[in-house]
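We now fix the convention by which a protein and its fold are recorded. These numbers are not coordinates but entries in a learned vocabulary of local backbone shapes. A record is reproduced here so that you can trace the correspondence yourselves:
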Amino acid sequence: MTGYLSSCTVVVPTIGRPSLDVLLDALANSTGPRPAELVLVDDRPTGEPLRPERPGLPPVRVVRTGGGGPARARNLGWRTAHTEWIAFLDDDVVPDPDWYDRLAADLAALPDDVAGTQGRVRVPLPTDRRPTDWERGTAGLATSSWITADLAYRRSALAAVGGFDERFPRAFREDSDLALRVMDTGSTLTRGERWITHPVRPVDRWVSARVQAGNADDVLMRRLHGPTWRDRADAAVGRRPRHLAVTGAALAAVGLLAVGRPRAAGLAALGWLAGTAEFAWARIAPGPRDRAEVATMALTSAVIPPLATWHVLRGAVVHRDVPAWRGLPDLVLFDRDGTLVHDVPYNGDPALVAPVDGAREALDSLRARGVRIGLVTNQSGVGRGLITRAQADAVNARVAELLGPFDTVQVCPHAPEDGCHCRKPAPGMVTAACAELGVDPARCVVVGDIAADLGAAAAAGARGILVPTPVTLPAEVTAARHRAPTLTEAVEDVLAGAW
């Protein structure tokens, strides 16, 4: 089974909770072969660097998002990994001692049409008393479908759908949304035989009120997947209809009292009180019924219905018009002369290389999000005998020195009359770059300053963005479907999903 884990990267998004140390200790002490890499994605806006080093772990790499939520953190993790499989773990779970062995066995058992495999979850509950409302809610993870507390995906399946939808801002529904989109491609997901333990973390008494924000995410799920999404995602409706009714009764009581109808207002208030009492008892009855739990349930049961209703309405407004998630491209290819650096015709002198304004910052912003970048450049001066291939390569090396490394560099050394398949607008360099990095051309963007750049993109099945310069013909600007006034703005459009 060793070969299966050598083609797997484990990604753990974290906000630096103490539970991360428990997870890392468990992985360090687990039996079996190690994966190719462990990527810790630090999703804190600030903070001291993580110190994950300990004997027994696979090679560890730490990347930082600067804050952005679990969806963005997981996306950065899988985008910076290049193995066939990506196994996600949450930073508050404890894998079993044989987790590596069982993960390898789970992956080995999968046919090609299976895109992912979910681990099994146990949630330990107290044995000396009844569980609290929060403990019972956490226990629901044991039977939930497609949660990324422990879920391995093929990297190609993640790339095909753009990864996690970053419009889900919290650790809620983003994993179900991903699973539905992956299954919409015709792939299947299975449940494996490996196990993790998900302890119940300590919380304050108002946690059940705060999690009502997830109602807005449910609205987004409906917008994206239609009214049957709950059946497909195995997600219960819960008490939302009752919350709406209880909130309606409270609003009716206030409104009727305001218009001078006290009797009707009293009846509405009784309806609100009865609904709130029923909700509180439904949460108190199966619990420990101690004073603290009863007080917490009474207080939050009065607050939750209007909060849930508010978040439903907020979600209906915020998500009233949402396109399908496409995510970031897997690869952005840049023309060189006139796009990344100022154009010096037939340049063979590295000393003459001068980046355009904002080029380094633009490329670094792509690298920071895990997007691979490449160079695709026509160098007809080589074919015409004006410069040598070594000189062209020296200029490219200088570009990389000034702008940072490229994941692929493609050069066409032919003259226009040679009739090659690589010179833009032919697709050869774009398709070669995608093939080298294992990227679907449909997930690739080409940025250039003339129509030939966009033509190469279109011929390869990629997207093109035109950044006009003084040499760009007006007709080329008019014909370009996607264009941006500067390189910086072109990259900003890519990062915003406008590609």
Summary: The first helix runs from residue 2 to 6. Residues 204-323 form one domain. Residues 177 and 221 are 7 Å apart (CA to CA).
